[in-house]
Every structure is written in C-alpha cells, then in structure tokens.
Amino acid sequence: MNMKYSVLDLATVVEGKTPADTFKNSVDLAQHAENWGFSRYWLAEHHNMISVASSATSVVIGHIASHTKTIRVGSGGIMLPNHSPLIIAEQFGTLESLFPGRIDLGLGRAPGTDQVTAMAIRGERFSGANDFPKDILKLQRYFSSENRSSAVRAIPGEGLDIPIWILGSSTDSAHLAAALGLPYAFASHFAPAQLLTAIRIYREEFKPSVYLAQPYVMACVNVVAADTDAEAERLVTSLYQLFKGIVTGKRKLLQPPVDNMEDVWDEYEEAQASQMLACTFVGSKATISQDLQSFIAQTQADEIIVSSHIYDHKARLRSYEILAEVF
User: Fold this and answer.
1) Is 253 helix (H, G, I), strand (E, B) or coil?
2) How far apart (Å, rounded) are the C-alpha atoms in residues 196 and 217?
3) 281: buried, middle or exposed (CB in 10 Å: 19+, 13-18, 0-12)?
C-alpha cells in the first residue's frame, strides 16, 4: 500500500507503571517509528483520565520532537475550546521554531474529558465549542505574516508555516474542514459510526484554499498485530478491557491481556464496546494487510493513523513494526 502511515500515541499508562514510564516508552516508539517510515507521531489532549498521560500535550510533543530527527510530531488533537487561540499559536510557534518543518497542529472541539472537568478547564468559557470556527480563523491570523501590524501578535508563531488539521468524530467538523479547505482527520478508532458519511460530506463540499488544493482524509484506526492471529487476539483483550471501562465509566490503567474476555465483560458491555471498535484490525501480517486494504478501498483514505493499546511495550513495538511491513 503506497500511502502515508502514522502513529497516534494516546500516552497510555499501563497497570503497574507511571506516566514517567509512559513517556520513556513513547520516545522509544517514536524513534522506532521514524526508522520504520512512519510519517507522523501525534499525541492527543485528554484530562482527568487515569490511563492517559498526555494532558499537557504541547509539552509532550516537544519532548518527542527533541528525541527524534525527521518524523513530523503534532497534536491529534489540541482541544481548542479549552484554550485561548493566542496561547496555542505561541505554543506551536515555539515548537515550530525549535523543530522547523516538523510540527502539525490538529484541532478538535470536544473537551477531551468529562463535563465536570471541562468546567474546571474552561470556566466561564464553558460554551467555547460554539466559537470553534472563529477560533480557528484567529489561529490562522496569528500565524500569518499579515498580522504583524496587529495590536496582538503571536511571537513566536507569526509567519510560520504550521499545518492545521480539523479533527472530527461526527459530521459537524466535516462541513467545517471542507469550508476552510483544510485536511480532515476522523476519529474512527472510537467513533466509527459516521466515518463514511463524514468523508463523503468533506469531499463533496471541499473548497480549495491556500493551504490545500484537494481534499485530504486521514482515518484513525486501532491495530493490534502480532506474529500469529492467536497472539494478536490475546493482546487485543487489553484494548477490550479499556473500552469496557469507557462503557461502564469505571476506567482503569491499561490491563494485562486475558485468555477469555467472557470472564471479564457481559453481553451489553461487549456489544457497546464492539460498536465503538468497529475500525479495529487484529491479527498477523497477512490478516492485517488484507483487512486494511479492504478498509482503504472502502474509505479511499489518503493516510492511515494508528493507535495501538498493547500492554507489553515490546509487543507494541512489534505491532507497529509489522504494520510498517504491511505498508
């Protein structure tokens, strides 16, 4: 498959380890991914989640970029309503100044957390998601050279070429990405239901811009690859347990794999998790290759970005290595 392939690292904290361990493993994975030909290494903003360590997303992006040389590093995404556009322009302007030509800025409108925590983050700006389109335009203005005559300027940031992506898990952001002529990344790794509809809307409504001449779609999927199908089927039970926690509201650190998920979840939990995990590919190199080719043929995605919740770090590295061999 002659297309770009990338990593979405959710900075997962595994049972028995700490966020410090997570960051060490993320650096190791990023360095391997760079050598294996991955195009990007993205991190996502989440808050108040025991198993996710990337709450200070721009800080972790800088850490990964400082330990790699060529791979693009960015956000998948920054939840813009949680922040002032000026602050994000300054943060990513700083990153781009430190690591020229390597920084991506993916933007989402969700809070990346529960409503109580969102209130703690946003305060009086709790309804800031309504300003998402306007805030993107503000960001673009801060990055533009024309803003140098403005009373408020992003230093560093002004005049820098920092690609902005629109992230979405429903059709709302598809309309926005198309109207703004920006690349579009869809979170089908946990919200696959509207994937095909969102892609169709984006492509049909896309308006060329100074940033992008043709529509560009990145689809995010889960992949758990191993040397055998049986091994991969066992490894993926850590992901299943994670999503059981999401369904039940009882989140845990990423758990070790188990031999039988029937001992862990009930039929309702399995059904709910399975709906969210419809874009999950599990198996050996041959199995992953066949299934991913079918997915790409169906979506006509321009790029695939992959999340892999695997308990053992060496097994996670092997999964991404197999994925690179597939591409």
Assistant:
1) coil
2) 11
3) buried
**How remote is the C-alpha of 20 from its chain's centroid?**
20
Instruction: Take residue 68 and report the two structure tokens written for it.
Output: 């790699």
CB-based contact 140:96 (threshold 8 Å): no
Helical axes 19-35 vs 57-66, angle rounded to 10°: 50
CA distance linking residue 139 with residue 135, whole number of Å: 6
Name the stretches of the chain with pLDDT < 50. Answer: none
Would you tell me the crossing angle of helices 195-205 and 172-180 to the nearest 10 degrees? 20
**Which architecture characterizes domain 4-326 according to CATH?**
Alpha-Beta Barrel (3.20)
Residue 48 vs residues 21, 51, 102, 111, 276: alpha-carbon distances, Å: 18, 9, 29, 11, 21
**Residue 131's pLDDT is what?**
87
Amino acid at 18: T
The domains of the chain are located at 4-326
pLDDT, residue 308, reads: 97
CA dihedral 300, 306, 308, 313 (to 10 degrees): 140
DSSP 87-141: HHHHHHHHHHHHSTT-EEEEEE-S-SS-HHHHHHHHGGGTTGGGGHHHHHHHHHH
The string of pLDDT tens digits covering residues 294-307 is 999 999 999 999 99
- What DSSP line would sit under 136-171, residue for residue? HHHHHHHHSGGGGGSSS--TTTTT----EEEEESSS
- Backbone phi, then psi, for 188, in 5-degree steps? -75, -5
If we measure between CA atoms, which residue out of 119, 157, 123, 125 comes closest to residue 140?
A: 157
Q: What local confidence, expressed as pLDDT, does residue 269 receive? A: 94
Distances, alpha carbon 7 to alpha carbons 31, 126, 134, 320, in Å: 12, 31, 29, 9
